Amino acid sequence: MPRRTPPERIRDVARAACQVFTEKGYRRTLMTDVGAELGLSHALLYRYVDGKEALFELALRYAIDEQAAAAISVPVPTPPTGHMLGLVRSWSRANAVFPVLASALDGQPPADAAAELLGIIDERYAFVERNRRVLALIERSALDIPDLHALYFTKGRRNQTDRLARYLDRRIRSGHLRPVPDAGVAARFIGETIAWFAWHRKDDPDSAMIGDEPARQTVRELLVTALAVPGRAGRKASRQ
């Protein structure tokens, strides 16, 4: 029968698992690694999870919602096949939503293209900054789990990059944004710039001192200045 355990204890196990899986990836992480991070013996860790698959699911739940993970009954059972991917899909449907970009793709060219682009940058930056822990866990572990790799990289990140590239191409052709050699590369440049400043810089010992607000404002300013055409209303929407 599942046991209740103090929330701070299961939270500690989940935190340690999240940290180790993010650092080592799924394949290279061992139960003993997480036990060592906690100062627990290998055998004692099985009081909390049935095995490595359960431990990864606990880590994923913690990355998605720390408070919900603390309320899980132990031992966490080995999840059924496909359950982990279902959790990732549910998280993505609830969080990887970009209404400003969707509206820009569906609508006519705006009166203020710089403001439109700024809104697209802001919503992407906020998403990465808010979800950097779960993104880090999924991205690192997806290298070892083919189905997760396909879901995260092919269906997720690549799809969002393609959507941003279509937006850039349309606004370039309508005269609202500056021409670039390749819209797909530009979209990837925007995504990677945001990812580094909203997420990766926090793990860089030479950049962690950069404050959140200066990082955000500098990214906004440089990307919009690089792409927006000042004082141009753009050509007719029929050229899109």
What is the molecular shape? elongated
Q: Report the radius of gyration as a whole number of Å.
A: 21 Å
Unreliably modeled segments: 1-5, 233-240
Query: Number of domains in the coordinates?
Result: 2
Distance between the termini: 62 Å
Average pLDDT confidence is: 92
**What's the CATH superfamily of the largest domain, by name?**
Tetracycline Repressor, domain 2
The total count of strands amounts to 0
Largest sheet: none
Tally of contiguous helical segments: 12
CATH structural fold name of the largest domain: Tetracycline Repressor, domain 2
Q: How helical, in percent, are the residues?
A: 55-70%
Strand content range? under 5%
Helices and strands in order:
Blueprint: H1 7-28, H2 31-38, H3 42-45, H4 52-64, H5 66-70, H6 83-95, H7 99-106, H8 113-130, H9 132-142, H10 146-173, H11 183-198, H12 212-227
Helix pairs in contact: 1-2, 1-4, 1-9, 4-6, 4-9, 6-10, 7-8, 7-10, 8-11, 8-12, 9-10, 10-11, 11-12
Task: Summarize, please.
The chain has helices spanning 7-28, 31-38, 42-45, 52-64, 66-70, 83-95, 99-106, 113-130, 132-142, 146-173, 183-198, 212-227. The chain is an all-alpha fold and 240 residues long. It folds into 2 domains: 7-79, Tetracycline Repressor, domain 2; 86-239, Tetracycline Repressor, domain 2, CATH 1.10.357.10.
Explained architecture:
The relative contact order is 0.11. The N terminus and C terminus are likely disordered. With 240 residues, the chain is mainly α. It has 2 domains: 73 residues, Tetracycline Repressor, domain 2; 154 residues, Tetracycline Repressor, domain 2. The N and C termini lie far apart (62 Å). The chain contains 12 helices and no strands.
